[in-house]
Amino acid sequence: MTEIRLETRALRRHFGALVAVQEIDFKLAAGARHALIGPNGAGKTTFINLLSGALPASRGRVLLKGNDVTDKTQAERVKLGIARTFQINRLFRGLSVLENVCISIAERVGAAPSMFYPVGRRTDVIDEAMHLLDVLKLASNAAHRVSELPYGRQRLVEIAIAIGLKPEVLLLDEPAAGVPSTESHIILDAIERLPEHIAILIIEHDMDVVFRFAKRVTVMVGGALFAEGTPREIEANPQVRAVYLGQASRG
Ligand SMILES: Nc1ncnc2c1ncn2[C@@H]1O[C@H](COP(=O)(O)OP(=O)(O)OP(=O)(O)O)[C@@H](O)[C@H]1O
Ligand SMILES: [Mg+2]
User: Fold this and answer.
1) Could you tell me where the DSSP H helices lie in 81-149?
2) What is the pLDDT of residue 117?
């Protein structure tokens, strides 16, 4: 039996009268390569916000490795192993790439920077950050300010930060959004090289990316789960084609 890393039970979130996520039962397996697709406004980002704790649920539960984390804050969930990226990046733009990644690693190892003990003196943190930048082919940008980098590279830094937290579950909300198609392959390549044991849930509109990366696909429509299966099953599903794939980008 496949081990489940993250699970939701009847998870729901409404904004006033709008039910953005309705009673979702979902399972993310250990080492998953799972895509969440669906039309604009389907509730995908809201669902990930509920998983990461960025938003509280209106009802239902979130379980990480069988433990109920529904009442935990986002910071607490990060410590328990859930990391994420955002649809629009949230980096320290005035700091260097290396500093951004060091902050994330320092947070994890409990070496938060202070006036008396700056991250700059933690050689273990810097070594780990440089290794991570190497893996993501960002080492040559280590000293560059984030604001100076092309957008595609900034999105890679976000992934580096999430990985610096050594998560068991990684939630990626459109990691290549806004990145020119000439650069988006570097992001997908980086995601494909991430450690196998990390369970990854990715929201993605580009169907080429979805079908190349994902082993499992869930389709969300109108706040509810509409279909789930292998990429082949989803592609061949006439209802899915009618509500989504017919209009989605597939080059
Ligand atoms: N903070 C909020 N307050 C009110 N309504 C919201 C809020 N966040 C999301 N919504 C609404 O909830 C619904 C789901 O939005 P969500 O951003 O989760 O969709 P999505 O599937 O991620 O869409 P996209 O593909 O465009 O990113 C939409 O109708 C949206 O307008
Ligand atoms: Mg979204």
Assistant:
1) 97-109, 123-135
2) 59
